[in-house]
Design goal:
The chain has a single domain, classed as Alpha-Beta Plaits, CATH 3.30.70.100. The protein is α+β, with helices and mostly antiparallel strands and 84 residues long. The longest helix has 13 residues. The N and C termini lie far apart (32 Å). The chain is globular, with a radius of gyration of 12 Å. One of its GO terms (cellular component) is cytosol. One of its GO terms (biological process) is copper ion transport.
Length: 84
């Protein structure tokens, strides 16, 4: 577990359907050890195995159509811009 990464994202969510969509995609993503999506805090926190990188998690959340406002990897701020 020491090698796990913690990714945190600020995601604009307006309702339970929004947080539900993010819950669904994270639940299906290979390498996710645990996750917590909070509509109240407008954030998603993902604990991922070492093989699951930040960009993959970011891409997965963005696929829901929700706006990601910022992201962190293990407490460090990271870009939310994905390479084309």
């Amino acid at each position: 577990m020491a090698d796990a990464h913690t990714y945190k994202f600020r995601v604009a969510m307006s309702c339970g359907g929004c947080s539900g969509a993010i819950n669904r995609v994270l639940g299906k993503l290979e390498g996710v050890q645990s996750y917590d999506v909070s509509l109240e805090k407008q954030e998603a926190v993902v604990v991922a195995s070492p093989g699951l990188d930040y960009e993959t998690v970011l891409k997965t959340i963005k696929k829901t159509g929700k706006k990601v406002e910022w992201g962190q990897e293990d407490g460090e701020s990271k870009s939310i811009d994905l390479p084309e």
